[in-house]
Design goal:
By secondary structure, the protein is α+β, with helices and mostly antiparallel strands. The chain has twelve helices and eight strands. Keywords: Amino-acid transport, Cell membrane, Membrane, Transmembrane, Transmembrane helix, Transport.
């Protein structure tokens, strides 16, 4: 009995599972010790240099201006508000870039497979040119070589005397809501709800009877017609603040600064070149027999592409598309090269230089980009789960 129990105890240490647990515990202890050492040394060095820690600096007065802000901001605002302004500007250019890059990328990717020789070659040239030029160079090109070469406000390029393009940006009329405009917004919300319900009903009807409803045409008619009818019935409760030249600049309207335009163009065009290749490879991954079967039953080419090819290609496209969206969001930090007031420029740049709170500011900036990326990844993964082919 004694020999048996002794051998069992010896076998315990020769058990791979036990050894793995012991090794992992030692690694965790070593990692915890390293983190404690780094934090202790960092706090000691900061104290020795008289640098305070914490987030109290967010309540201090910033004292600098920001050329573009989606919320109220002035030089008397706090550093916490500069963080919000920078975050909103980052989300703005990222959102606009994702939409534009997706539209351009899908159009170019489909064009690459076109039977039209000229269109296919132009699409191929677009991809090969823009994806092989560094993004930073493209940003500088659009900003310095194109937008900074525009005329002064007095010699602005105009369209219908309402849109003005000059070296200071694009100036356009700004909508001003009048009494009764809320009814139009409620009509728009109702139209969206009706279109969503119509889409669900059309899918159910097609699955049950095989009959397809013209959802796109009906949806467009409802989305445009219902709010427009309410808008006209309430006496057009929307006015326009048209910009006018006063001295050396325009007054009134809304101005899109050239930094935003250059960054948006560069991010959209550059990312679209990669999305185009993703779309092309996704379409080519669909078996050719699917297209041949569609032609055999005389389906038009646009319906074949929209109803048969693209839905099957999306299971290949979506995972790679997610990576490009994340790259676009992170590449927006290159805005500092041309002075666009994004999160990195106004918070990890000016705010950091004024306060010296390097650890807190850099940690908050990294956490924001990580959170945005995780949210985008989660949304794309949910969509990807819906586009996967269901096995029977």
């Amino acid at each position: 009995m004694l020999r048996s129990s002794s051998s069992e105890r010896g076998a315990l240490w020769r058990n791979p599972a036990v050894r793995a647990l012991v090794i992992q515990a030692l690694l965790l202890l070593g990692l915890a010790a390293l983190i404690v050492m780094l934090v202790t040394n960092t706090l000691a060095n900061l104290e020795a240099r008289g640098i305070t820690t914490g987030l109290g600096f967010l309540q201090e007065r910033a004292g600098f201006s920001i050329p573009q802000s989606l919320i109220a901001y002035s030089g008397d605002s706090t550093y916490g508000r500069t963080f919000v302004v920078g975050l909103l500007n980052t989300l703005l250019v990222s959102g606009l870039g994702i939409v534009a890059a997706t539209v351009i990328g899908f159009a170019v990717g489909i064009s690459r497979l076109s039977s039209n020789w000229l269109l296919a070659r132009l699409a191929a040239a677009y991809v090969e040119i823009f994806r092989n030029i560094p993004l930073l160079v493209q940003i500088l090109f659009w900003y310095f070589a194109v937008l900074q070469a525009l005329p002064s406000p007095r010699q602005s390029l105009s369209l219908f005397e309402a849109l003005f393009l000059n070296v200071r940006g694009l100036v356009m009329p700004a909508p001003v809501a009048q009494p009764g405009f809320d009814a139009t917004l409620w009509a728009l919300a109702l139209a969206v709800a009706v279109v969503v319900g119509l889409t669900l009903y059309a899918r159910h009807l097609q699955a049950r009877t095989g009959r397809a409803l013209p959802v796109y045409r009906l949806g467009a008619l409802i989305l445009i017609g219902l709010p427009l009818a309410v808008f006209l019935a309430t006496g057009r409760p929307l006015a326009w603040d048209v910009p006018a030249l006063a001295g050396f600049n325009f007054k009134g309207g809304v101005t899109i600064i050239p930094e935003l335009m250059a960054l948006w163009l560069a991010l959209s065009i550059y990312t679209a070149s990669f999305i185009a290749e993703i779309v092309r490879s996704g379409i080519q991954s669909v078996p050719s027999g699917q297209v041949e079967a569609a032609r055999a039953i005389s389906l038009p080419g646009n319906i074949t592409l929209r109803k048969i090819v693209i839905p099957q290609a999306m299971r290949v496209i979506v995972p790679q598309l997610t990576s490009q969206y994340l790259n676009l969001i992170k590449n927006s930090s290159l805005a500092t090269a041309i002075g666009y007031p994004d999160l990195v420029a106004v918070f990890a740049g000016t705010t950091l230089n004024q306060t010296g709170q390097a650890i807190e500011i850099i940690a908050m900036t990294m956490a924001v980009y990580l959170l945005i990326s995780l949210v985008v990844s989660a949304l794309m993964n949910l969509y990807n789960a819906r586009t996967l082919m269901k096995e029977r």
